Amino acid sequence: MGFELKKYLAEKKQEIEKFIVSYFNPSIIPKILHESVLYSLTAGGKRLRPILCIASYEACDGKKNIVPYATAIEFIHTYSLIHDDLPAMDNDDLRRGKPTNHKVFGEGIAILAGDGLLTEAFTILSNPEYADINPAILLKVINEISKAAGLRGMVAGQAYDLISEGKEPDENIVKFIHSYKTAAMIKASVKSGAILAEASEEKIYHLEVYGQSIGLAFQIIDDILDIEGTTEEMGKPKGSDIERGKMTYPKVFGIEKSKEEARLLIEKALQEIEIFGDKAEPLREIAKFIISRTN
Ligand code: GRG
């Protein structure tokens, strides 16, 4: 039987979630902070970034269990969403159809939950014992992920997103926001899988271009869903980007051109991973899923 994406995603999701619930030691963490961290970590995320990391590792013939390292990336993603929803940022009441973290636990605890998750990710990534990984390899992964998450990546993109609200459409700015706010972490997830597998420079390069392309397409589709999606499927109010005057792809290029750009990016991503043959089937199907997703 051929490859079934739904089954693959469900299996990987289960492994990631098993690690999440086993990871925290509630006796050390104050109860409310522990609840806040687990609330957002188990609120129904797609686990796209850790699954991409694992799929990339497997495409490069990696054979160890790297779920803890992949899940560390989900910790960073979860921190970014908790902080993104805060009143000082996007001020959202709903995420994945549930009240946002600060609505349930208060702003102070939500900020600390985000801070804790970001820091804890590096506690995991700097521990070679999870899969007997060469520390020099982990150092490379930490370098990639910290660059993608910080001032040279997601945080820079988020800052441009924030200060561009209500500004005139600008092609360069929207491309910067999408590349840094969203694509940087997706690219780093894919690249980290290849680094953990000790893949060749050539393979790492192709996977990096794949990651950047699907990452950009992912955010373009997110912008389109804000206009064409449904509040029920997305789990957050439709039209919130327009309401806030966000610099989005449809705002700058129009909806049809945005769809065409997303399609071209996915095509480019698929070309980049041709060299991996059947081993890249999960990466191939994930790229196609990104363009057809409804949440
Ligand atoms: C440093 C205070 C401070 C805040 C940082 C950097 C940051 C906050 C936020 C940026 C992260 C962000 C909101 C990126 C947008 C990318 C995006 C479309 C996120 C949703 O990703 P999905 O659909 O989420 O993979 P699920 O719910 O499936 O996990």
Question: What's the short story on this structure?
Answer:
By secondary structure, the chain is mainly α.
Key terms for this structure?
single chain; Farnesyl Diphosphate Synthase; 70% helix; 15 helices; binds geranylgeranyl diphosphate; 295 residues; mainly alpha
What's the SSE blueprint?
Blueprint lengths: L4 H19 L7 H11 L6 H12 L7 H18 L9 E2 L2 E2 L1 H5 L1 H19 L9 H15 L4 H10 L7 H26 L4 H28 L2 H4 L5 H4 L5 H5 L1 H18 L8 H12 L3
Antiparallel strand pairs: 1-2
Helix pairs in contact: 1-4, 2-6, 3-4, 3-9, 3-15, 4-6, 7-9, 8-9, 9-10, 10-14, 14-15
Bound molecules: geranylgeranyl diphosphate (GRG).
Low-confidence stretches: none
Number of domains: 1
Sheet with most strands: 2 strands, antiparallel
- Mean pLDDT level: 96
CATH architecture: Orthogonal Bundle
